Amino acid sequence: MMKRTAAAFLALSAICGQAFAQDETAPIEPETLTVKERIDEGPNLFVLDQKWAGPSSVNVLGAEDFAMKGNVGPGTTAQMVLSGDGRTLYTTSVYFARYTYGEVTNVFHSWDVDTLSIKGEFEFGNKMAHVEAQPALLSLTADEAYALAQNATPATSISVIDIAAGAQIAEIPTPGCWGAFPATSGMKFTTICGDGTFQSYSFDAEGGFGEPGKSEPIFDVDADALFTNGVRVGETLVYLSYGGTLYVVDDSGDVPVLSETIPLTGGVLGGWAPGGSEVIAYNAPTNTAFVLMHSASYDGSHKNGATEIWTVDMETKSVVGRSPANHENSLAVTQTEEPMLYGANEDGMVYLYTVETGEEVTLELSEEFDIAGWPTVMELDR
């Protein structure tokens, strides 16, 4: 056997040697690398892979088939928000001169979605919060003329950024509060606070601002704390508590007020509770919310990945569906008549669920994609 193997190797070597000798004078055709001028048409899903030890990445996937269309690269601890027409992506991120010492630079980027190229960039302040990406940490006012960026030194404040002027025009102190949810009109935002209240702030085009409108205590931070990532439902904001109750806050006036609470877990066996980061997503055309839930909850399990996704009819204020989950800690949903739901988990997986309506709403897993990173927040252009 050894002799036959050696003979075969020698014969193969001779043939290869002749082939190389014949081709050694043939020119090698260099490979031409190209870059597509525009990404493929169709709806997009933007997934922020946030990094803390280098540049972050926003991956652009086909929203229906998860085909990779490309990516853009902001800096460290990036946040992102998409324009209403889906044509411009905005990011804030941090650049370190020396990482362990030296200058820290905060940069606001505008990205053209069609070409995934930079439209503009400018520096703003040096107080941007270096935290996990969350929707309320970079948002746009109703007219999209201003961006609102969360600061933390650890003292909290909001940078008001005039996008057209390419400059920060104000830093509004928001002591003890977190995030900025823009109003549905005007130059105003609402923030959730650590004393159980909500506060609304108004500002003007010159960077002026006044005292906030502060609510009465709305939630008990010890008995039933709220996740800081809520969703806007018309003129109200809806937040989910650690215990599984929806808090509906009307911020249309000068001072936020509690409209109602909607318990989701009352009478449900198994110790169910919400868990994750972006724990709730809302589809306006169907007036439906989707919530990440896990069983056997305990003090501190509010960061656990989901074992089920619950569907909530906001009209009847009831749970109308419970479907298996894949340990997601972040949700996003389209604003289409037939919702498409997206989830992401800390293992780097992104999932697409089709929503089957009826007396009981069910979710069917239809696509999955591994971005090989940390998918924090997701944005959709429909």
Automatic annotation (TrEMBL):
Keywords: Disulfide bond, Electron transport, Oxidoreductase, Periplasm, Signal, Transport
SUPFAM superfamilies: YVTN repeat-like/Quinoprotein amine dehydrogenase (SSF50969)
InterPro entries, per the entry: Metamine_DH_Hvc, Quino_amine_DH_bsu, WD40/YVTN_repeat-like_dom_sf
Positions of disulphide bridges: C177-C193
The UniProt record lists the keyword Electron transport: yes
Compartmental location: Periplasm
Molecular functions (GO terms): aliphatic amine dehydrogenase activity
Signal peptide extent: 1-21
GO cellular component: periplasmic space
Major localization class: periplasm
Family (UniProt): Belongs to the aromatic amine dehydrogenase heavy chain family.
Name the UniProt record assigns to this protein: Amine dehydrogenase
Species whose genome carries this gene: Celeribacter indicus
